[in-house]
């Protein structure tokens, strides 16, 4: 599933291409990805210009006509956005031009013969257009961005101590902190030496500082590496991310801990896997 670094990588790639593009018309192939009726969706994006490509939590947010409306895409499990028929300034075509989307769900026909395709194999992703006010309300419900300068270790600790949920679940709750998914929650707990099932309110200020640093380090490194390699994830160039080989606990059940050599364990919390080292992260 694409998480913050994968979405950020995609957003940075799309931001080089899409601003200034006008949506001429939209073809909805699978309307189950829309969060509103097809006709309304098509009318509200038609003839609007994409003025930026931004990220908020795991959402790709495209202000239309300088923020009169917002096109919001969530990639869900297997979603991707493919720009098509864009020329690079150096004349070479982005890699995704060579890839023909096999599961297009929504195709935006842009000016100049270009297109943007929302592709989704399993169709847990969503596409919607929101008014400026509706987007403001949605945005306000999301927690702070973990990479923002305003989000410090003390803020993380203050949030954690208000909850008795397992730390791993707290990190996944988008209302408490934005954009963190299963992979980076396991990695942040490992880097802080905190067992993923510990109650959030048991995390000490020192551990919260370690978790804050770990979260920013792992998210930052993942962005630098273009996002984690995931089955269906592709960045805007259509290339897989390179970060998969650098994860310290996620997906490494039974392999030696990079710190102490003990076998990494996997547990299931709230139906989702968490990976941890039983020595470095005691209960
Ligand atoms: Zn260990």
What does this molecule look like?
The chain has 283 residues and is α+β, with helices and mostly antiparallel strands. 27% of the residues lie in helices and 20% in strands. A hairpin with a 4-residue loop joins strand 3 and strand 4. The chain is elongated and about 60 Å long. The chain starts with a helix and ends in a 7-residue tail after the last strand. Zinc ion binds next to loops.
Secondary-structure-based class equals alpha+beta
Kindly report the name of the CATH homologous superfamily of the largest domain: MutM-like, N-terminal
Q: How many helix segments?
A: 7
Total individual domains: 2
Task: Note poorly predicted spans.
Answer: 90-98, 229-233
The appropriate CATH architecture of the largest domain is: Alpha-Beta Barrel
Listing every helix as H and every strand as E from the N terminus to the C terminus, the arrangement reads: HEHEEEEEEEHHHHHEE
Any idea of the CATH topology of the largest domain? N-terminal domain of MutM-like DNA repair proteins
Q: Radius of gyration from the CA trace?
A: 20 Å
Strand content: 15-25%
Write the layout of secondary structure elements.
Layout: H1 4-15, E1 23-28, H2 38-45, E2 54-56, E3 59-64, E4 69-74, E5 79-84, E6 104-110, E7 115-120, E8 126-131, H3 132-141, H4 153-160, H5 167-172, H6 182-192, H7 205-224, E9 265-269, E10 272-276
Structure summarized in a few sentences:
The chain is α+β, with helices and mostly antiparallel strands and 283 residues long. It contains seven helices and ten strands.
